[in-house]
């Protein structure tokens, strides 16, 4: 099987429909990005999706992750592809908006879409790490940032999500919740 993705619509969206030049003109991006770069990024992103990401999709479906003796082993190739994407700027560094060096989200999301088509499972590794890294960026101490962010953005470490819904697990749509008035809310209503 061969991976194919028509980038024509993506090119139209970013180069003609959206006002991407305004994004590229921002102080953070103006020295490194322009509309002239869109084709380069989409071509390279497509090549990576086709040649690097897509080949792990089939084995990932067939073999999957394994838990043996308390150690989780991802499907073959997943760790290498994850590290490649993270270390080469195709991953979380572009989703962590306060990290210098990442590409504009307008470009990153198009490349992410191609990777999602090539292997949906690997993109969850990136998204969960991006979410955890953004949480550390926003609320972490300088010590937290120095300890975690370099390892996460290089691909050595990952972020995760802990689900705490006792009645739903990962099926967030099945969550049931109840609300109770609190004393602080009652006090606020009196004032």
What can be said about this structure in brief?
The chain is mainly alpha-helical and 191 residues long.
> What is the tally of helical segments?
9
The radius of gyration computed from the alpha-carbon positions, rounded to a whole number of angstroms, is 20 Å
Instruction: Give the spatial strand order of the biggest sheet.
Output: 1-2
Low-pLDDT segments: none
Describe the structure.
The protein is mainly α and 191 residues long. It has a single domain, classed as Butyryl-Coa Dehydrogenase, subunit A, domain 1 (Orthogonal Bundle), CATH 1.10.540.10. 54% of the residues lie in helices and 3% in strands. It contains 9 helices and 2 strands. It has helices at 8-17, 20-24, 38-53, 57-63, 78-87, 105-118, 120-139, 142-154, 183-190; strands spanning 66-68, 71-73. Strands 1-2 form a two-stranded antiparallel ribbon. Strand 1 and strand 2 (71-73) form a beta hairpin. Helix 3 packs parallel to helix 6 (105-118) and helix 6 packs antiparallel against helix 7 (120-139). It is globular and about 55 Å long. The chain starts with 7 loop residues before the first helix and ends with a helix. The model has no long low-confidence stretch (mean pLDDT 87).
């Amino acid at each position: 099987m061969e991976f194919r993705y028509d980038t024509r619509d993506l090119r139209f969206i970013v180069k003609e429909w959206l006002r991407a030049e305004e994004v590229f003109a921002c102080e953070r991006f103006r020295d490194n990005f322009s509309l002239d770069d869109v084709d380069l990024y989409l071509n390279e992103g497509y090549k990576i999706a086709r040649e690097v990401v897509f080949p792990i999709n089939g084995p990932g479906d067939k073999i999957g992750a394994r838990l043996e003796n308390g150690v989780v082993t991802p499907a073959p190739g997943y760790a290498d592809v994850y590290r490649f994407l993270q270390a080469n700027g195709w991953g979380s560094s572009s989703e962590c908006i306060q990290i210098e060096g990442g590409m504009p989200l307008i470009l990153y999301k198009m490349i992410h879409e191609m990777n999602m088509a090539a292997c949906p499972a690997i993109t969850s590794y990136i998204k969960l790490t991006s979410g955890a890294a953004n949480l550390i960026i926003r609320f972490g101490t300088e010590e937290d940032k120095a300890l975690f962010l370099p390892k996460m953005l290089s691909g050595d470490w990952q972020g995760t999500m802990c689900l705490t819904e006792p009645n739903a697990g990962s099926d967030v749509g099945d969550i049931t919740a109840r609300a109770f008035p609190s004393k602080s809310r009652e006090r606020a209503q009196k004032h």
